[in-house]
Design goal:
The chain is an alpha+beta fold. It contains five helices and six strands. The termini are far apart.
């Protein structure tokens, strides 16, 4: 059998691995990108006390907060330049508005995001399922509504 594309090579780790020492590079790159796309908007950027990257846009300079929110979602999910930094958004602090700021917090690869992936799945299961004890006193997770009809009738009776 002839190998068409050269010798087989074992995969290596991603070159996008980030450490805390690259934080300044990430902040500089984000600052450059956002400054070029939103020239008239004032913002602060830096690391907060949990080592996450915090962006604070001044509300009096943001023309359209919905457009800014859409831009930030595209920046973190689709932008190749930002993709190499493996940034994750912190759901509890993503697009939070107050009277002075519009805040976006991103977690670099070395920071664990609370409520992400597996932990979030368990939280959702706890919210949508009720524990029912079986005869052996072990907790068994079952859906709150066993059939679709019973959930529909509950919604009808609620409203």
């Amino acid at each position: 059998m002839k190998i068409k594309h050269g010798d087989f090579r074992v995969g290596k780790s991603l070159e996008t691995y980030q450490s805390k020492s690259t934080a300044q590079e990430i902040i500089t790159s984000l600052k450059r990108k956002i400054s070029s796309d939103w020239e008239m908007t004032d913002f602060d950027i830096g690391l907060n006390n949990t080592s996450c990257i915090e962006l604070r846009f001044y509300m009096n300079t943001v023309e359209n907060s919905e457009a800014m929110h859409h831009y930030m979602n595209l920046l973190i999910n689709k932008n190749q330049e930002m993709g190499k930094f493996c940034l994750k958004r912190v759901p509890s602090s993503w697009g939070v508005k107050n009277t002075r700021f519009l805040v976006y917090i991103m977690a670099p690869a070395w920071v664990k995001v609370p409520g992400n992936s597996f932990n979030r799945t368990i939280e959702l299961k706890k919210a949508t399922h009720s524990p029912i004890k079986s005869k052996t006193d072990s907790v068994k997770i079952t859906p709150r509504y066993s059939t679709r009809e019973s959930s529909i009738s509950y919604v009808r009776n609620y409203y």
